[in-house]
């Protein structure tokens, strides 16, 4: 093994230990991604979704970098991992990412959607068959991960050059797929299509910690348009983005996500969506005035009730003021507002409140619903999903059981 930053042969990187060097690992040929007929739509639209999967020759999975540093932020990349990943971040964050598992970024044989032009929205994704509630619609690993500090602090010219250098580290088809996204330059493509994510191994780190806050660009995921009452929920684990259906999606229906907090009132949602450069005309935003006002009133009630429950649980003696029905009311408000992608949170609150007052029937009902909704939204092993399964099967053994009744 020679140690070099050359683009072929045995590659060296500070991100791998000597034992992990992959010099003699034979290159595995990646399988050809499905495409063509399954999408049914025009070829151009198929390519939007599948091009990065069609590389003729696979690359070895080797982390490289740092290169092209600007202060503490450098470019790190791995051409062979999950279709190709490039990072602009610190060495510490890059090492952390390199230690994480990633999903294999390959489209399923028959993706349940095709890309099409949607009037007034640009490109979007349409279901080509019935998609079941709870079904994974798409799973992608980030192609580009960028720390927020260079994104917000660098002068535009330096930043654009820096981003182009990072993009150059991706395999050509992946780079081409990136360039298909909406936005006039690389910066705008990142800005319009990226998801905020926290790169940390420290529980409790928040997006406000600039060292940890990053923007992740996930090819394919960028084609989901916004709806204030979307039919999917997404989660980001490590640097993998997973989109799951939160209700049954009919063939021909557009697959949507929300870009903003759907529990906000209509004017606030629309204000935030202005930043994305469009006026939202989704069914919820297009309700007749009286129904829109009713929705806003429900959202206000939902917010107040949620805050009241939090406050009472946190304040000494606060549980004395609580009534078991408050939990059920909260869940009802979420259901009436069709906030299908937030039901895990609402059902969990409801189950806990009923458990505090030893209502066995309601506790098991809401804990069972919460277990299913939380698993759908966050994965089967998510701690709240595990806790809700346990509450549903043995309510009396849970920490919350009866604590509302035991107070003096
Ligand atoms: C992440 S991209 C989604 C894909 C995009 N339609 C395209 O053609 O690349 C976000 C952009 O799509 C458009 N968009 C998304 N949802 C929309 C909606 N509900 N109404 C109008 N435009 C929307 C906006 O221009 C927004 O800035």
From TrEMBL:
InterPro entries: SET_dom, SET_dom_sf, SET_domain_protein. SMART domains: SET. Gene3D superfamilies: SET domain (2.170.270.10). The keyword Glycosyltransferase does not apply. Keywords: Signal. It holds the Pfam family SET. Residues 111-260 form the SET domain. This is SET domain-containing protein.
């Amino acid at each position: 093994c020679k140690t070099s930053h050359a683009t072929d042969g045995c590659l060296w990187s500070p991100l791998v230990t000597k034992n992990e060097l992959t010099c003699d690992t034979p290159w595995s040929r990646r399988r050809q991604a499905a495409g063509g007929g399954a999408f049914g739509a025009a070829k151009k639209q198929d390519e939007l979704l599948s091009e990065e999967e069609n590389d003729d020759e696979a690359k070895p999975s080797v982390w490289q970098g740092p290169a092209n540093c600007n202060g503490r932020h450098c470019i790190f990349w791995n051409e062979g991992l999950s279709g190709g990943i490039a990072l602009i971040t610190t060495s510490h964050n890059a090492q952390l990412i390199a230690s994480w598992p990633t999903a294999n970024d390959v489209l399923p044989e028959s993706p349940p959607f095709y890309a099409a032009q949607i009037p007034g929205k640009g490109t979007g994704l349409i279901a080509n068959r019935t998609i079941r509630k709870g079904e994974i619609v798409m799973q992608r690993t980030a192609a580009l991960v960028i720390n927020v500090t260079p994104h917000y602090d660098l002068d535009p010219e330096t930043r654009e050059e820096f981003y182009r250098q990072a993009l150059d580290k991706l395999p050509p088809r992946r780079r081409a797929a990136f360039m298909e996204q909406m936005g006039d330059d690389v910066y705008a493509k990142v800005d319009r299509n990226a998801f905020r994510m926290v790169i940390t191994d420290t529980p409790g780190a928040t997006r406000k910690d600039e060292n940890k806050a990053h923007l992740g660009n996930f090819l394919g995921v960028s084609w989901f348009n916004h709806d204030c009452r979307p039919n999917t929920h997404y989660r980001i684990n490590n640097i993998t983005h997973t989109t799951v259906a939160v209700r049954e999606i009919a063939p021909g229906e557009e697959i949507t996500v929300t870009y903003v907090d759907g529990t906000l009132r209509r004017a606030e949602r629309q204000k935030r969506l202005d930043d994305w450069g469009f006026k939202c005309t989704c069914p919820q935003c297009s309700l007749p005035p009286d129904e829109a006002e009713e929705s806003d009133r429900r959202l206000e009630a939902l917010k107040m009730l949620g805050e009241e429950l939090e406050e009472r649980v946190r304040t000494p003696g606060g549980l004395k003021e609580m009534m078991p029905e408050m939990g059920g009311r909260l869940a009802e408000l979420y259901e009436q507002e069709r906030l299908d992608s937030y039901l895990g949170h609402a059902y969990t609150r409801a189950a806990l409140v009923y458990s505090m007052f030893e209502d066995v029937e309601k506790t098991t009902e809401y804990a069972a619903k919460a277990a299913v909704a939380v698993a759908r939204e966050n994965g089967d092993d998510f701690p709240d999903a595990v806790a809700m399964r346990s509450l549903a099967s043995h309510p009396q053994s849970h920490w919350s059981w009866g604590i509302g009744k035991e107070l003096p």
